[in-house]
Amino acid sequence: MSEGKTPPRGRLIVLEGGDGSGKSRLTRELERRLSDQRLAVEAVREPGSTPLGERIREIINSESAVDDALAELLLFEAARAHLVARLIEPALAAGTHVLCDRFTASSVAYQSYGRGLPRAVVERANTLATGALTPDLTLLLDLPPAVGLARRHADGRLSHFDALPLDFHERVRAGYLDLAAESAERWRVIDATQPFEAVLEDAWGALRAVVA
Length: 212
Ligand code: TMP
Hints:
By secondary structure, the chain is of the alpha/beta class. Helices cover 55% and strands 13% of the residues. The protein has a 5-stranded parallel β-sheet, sandwiched between helices. Helix 2 (51-61) runs antiparallel to helix 3 and helix 4 packs antiparallel against helix 5 (119-130). The radius of gyration is 17 Å and the shape is globular. It starts with 11 loop residues before the first strand and ends with a helix. Residues 19, 46-47, 76, 102, 106-107, 110-111, 159, 161 line the site of thymidine-5'-phosphate (TMP). Thymidine-5'-phosphate binds next to helix 4.
């Protein structure tokens, strides 16, 4: 790039959904498709993708689960703040598109609708951690929690969130659907009970409209 030219800012695309909804596989496929089109793209996950974030992920997923909802929220927010500062903002500023496997909506869905923290508290923490960074597009992989949990059991990737009662996961799902309805122009709800290829085509169609 010649000196003095600022590249157009990259787009932030977030994948959200309950456990076992297929976000991680979809993130990988979308990253591959964008790369195939010679678009600069970086894929990250929450919590994680920085050394601090990965350590926080280990703490949260450890057997002695964090047993306080506010402490849990703040751990997710610390990981998020580090990820935004170290990877997401620099990438967007350099014109790289960022695919993020979970972001602020996860905290609203899990820590507010799921755990019961006031939504205003979670939103304040989200704003603090991200500097009010808002995704250009959020793809919500929606499916009944029982289906997602059965998939997680089948592939043996259970975390302590998976062990929470089904009504916790039902509240998380309801939270996501509320968020999607509140900002319909920036969210796309995808039926994640479909075969993966159909999910991928729905997601790709929505993403192309944003990165074109
Ligand atoms: P995952 O990598 O399978 O998505 O696991 C992350 C778990 O952490 C998942 O159960 C959702 C949960 N989570 C929250 O509760 N709040 C958050 O803000 C984030 C990012 C994840």
